[in-house]
Automatic annotation (TrEMBL):
Membrane topology: Multi-pass membrane protein
Cellular localization per UniProt: Cell membrane
Any one biological process term the GO annotation gives: transmembrane transport
Lineage: Bacteria, Bacillati, Bacillota, Bacilli, Bacillales
Protein name: AAT family amino acid transporter
InterPro entries per UniProt: AA-permease/SLC12A_dom, Amino_acid_permease_CS
Organism of derivation: Parageobacillus toebii NBRC 107807
Principal place of residence: membrane
Keywords: Amino-acid transport, Cell membrane, Membrane, Transmembrane, Transmembrane helix, Transport
Gene Ontology CC annotations of this record: plasma membrane
């Protein structure tokens, strides 16, 4: 398959450390710092089980994406793979859906930023801070891609260092009683307050929507593929390392928190991160942690704006979005696509102005969009494999483990999460807005006659 001329102008300025931290920056956001408290209330200590199982599913999804991305590293990768292996309509829907999901996710992030800023400025309306965050992140994305990658690297590093420090300090309390008068807390809090499964498996199932939202962003490695130096080496290492780091950060941090504090008190006495640091004598802990979680939200939003602009660029390349979205600035940035994305996120500023329930709405809608994207990645990988000859399959540089069973198990899990979202009233809104958006896209697709043209005709024959 030929690479479009315009795409060659995207600057390959991202190095391995950039894309590893970018994916971490996208995934370790408000899902951990703001969303985990609500998940713990639903599942209790068994939330660890939900994160571990969901993490295993995400590992298979990432390996499926990595298998295709190493063979064909292009910008907006899974939209292009869907186009090539599942058909033009699937590629079109996936690209626009991913744009929509990150617009919605960034609304969640700027909402969180507004909440955090009220810690220092309680009398200032939240929507003002949400607007300021959006403007700042948009301007940052107009930097050259290498400068953007460098900034995001340090952005993400702040919260990662904080989480690691919290885990180390927490383990010190659990094992040696550091900050607790020398009395080791142990891990009995994991089962002493109603048991490990205080709300039964129903609580674990109810928590899966927020847990899956927490993992949203890990697939961003695929979007960066068109701007990565040495894609084969960088993508392979990044896929493996990012997954394990995220799993350690989420499961590790929550294990420590719920070992030190009874799960049913978390969120009622303030942030567990703040409480942990205050126990060892860091009196400015509240301000420090608030700054960290603020950078976490901004970092995730920053990565989201990056990925959505690249997805619009890719859609324009495939003639499934206005041609102006494919125009690049002198620094190799899809400027028009970036501005359009930022304007769409202004809806989030308005929602913050009219309602305080924005966060719960947007996380469930974003989770539906993410599940669509992950399912498309798995389906594309299955079709990608089927098109390869047995000899070509043996020569793959980066293979999906346990193929094809791992792909089918992951798909079944995603279908199950959608079923749970339909079952529980709090997340049902996502199954109204998400499908409505997809139906609107299909109507536009056929109304504009996009079904009559193919930007990249797929070769249906087996690759030998």
């Amino acid at each position: 398959m030929q690479t479009p001329k315009n795409e060659q102008k995207l600057h390959r300025g991202l190095e391995e450390r950039h894309i590893s931290l970018m994916s971490l920056g996208a995934a370790i956001g408000v899902g951990l710092f703001l969303g985990s408290a609500s998940s713990i209330k639903l599942a209790g200590p068994a939330i660890l089980l939900a994160y571990a199982v969901s993490g295993a599913i995400m590992f298979f999804i990432m390996r499926a994406l990595g298998e295709m991305a190493v063979e064909n590293p292009v910008a907006g990768s899974f939209s292009r793979y869907a186009h090539d292996y599942l058909g033009p309509l699937a590629g079109y829907l996936t690209g626009w859906n991913y744009w929509f999901l990150w617009v919605v996710t960034c609304i969640a992030e700027i909402t969180a930023a507004g909440i955090y800023m009220q810690f220092w400025f309680p009398d200032t309306p939240r929507w003002i801070w949400a607007l300021a965050a959006l403007i700042m992140m948009t301007l940052i994305n107009f930097l050259a891609v290498k400068a953007y990658g460098e900034l995001e690297f340090w952005f993400a590093l702040i919260k990662i260092v904080t989480i690691v420090f919290m885990i180390i300090v927490g383990l010190g309390m659990i094992l040696f009683g550091i900050g607790n008068g020398g009395v080791a807390t142990g891990i009995s809090n994991l089962w002493e307050h109603g048991g490990f499964l205080p709300n039964g498996f129903t609580g674990v199932l109810m928590s899966l929507q927020m847990v899956m939202f927490a993992y949203l962003g890990i697939e961003m490695l695929g979007v960066t593929a068109g701007e990565v130096k040495n894609p084969e080496k960088s993508l392979t290492k990044a896929v493996n390392s990012v997954f394990w780091r995220i799993l350690i950060f989420y499961v590790g941090a929550l294990f420590v928190i719920m070992s030190i504090y009874p799960w049913n008190e978390i969120g009622e006495k303030g942030s567990p991160f703040v409480l942990t640091f205050e126990k060892i004598g860091i009196h400015a802990a509240a301000g420090i942690i608030n700054f960290v979680v603020l950078t976490a939200a901004l970092s995730s939003c920053n990565s989201g704006i990056f990925s959505t602009s690249r997805m619009l660029f890719n859609l324009a390349e495939q003639k499934e979005a206005p041609p102006s979205f494919a125009k690049l600035t002198k620094r190799g940035i899809p400027g028009v696509a970036l501005i359009v994305t930022a304007l769409a996120m202004l809806v989030g500023v308005y929602l913050n102005y009219v309602s305080e329930k924005v966060f719960q709405w947007v996380t469930s809608v974003a989770t539906f969009g993410a599940i669509w994207t992950w399912a498309i990645i798995l389906l594309s990988q299955l079709h990608f494999r089927k098109r390869l000859s047995p000899e070509k399959q043996k020569q793959l540089k980066y293979k999906m483990p346990l193929y094809p069973y791992s792909s089918y198990v992951a798909l079944a899990f995603l279908v199950g999460v959608v079923g749970l979202m339909a079952y529980f009233p709090d997340t049902r809104i996502a199954l109204i807005i998400g499908p409505a958006w997809l139906i609107l896209l299909v109507v536009v697709y056929y109304a504009k006659g996009m079904h009559k043209r193919h930007a990249y005709p797929s070769d249906k024959k087996q690759v030998s």
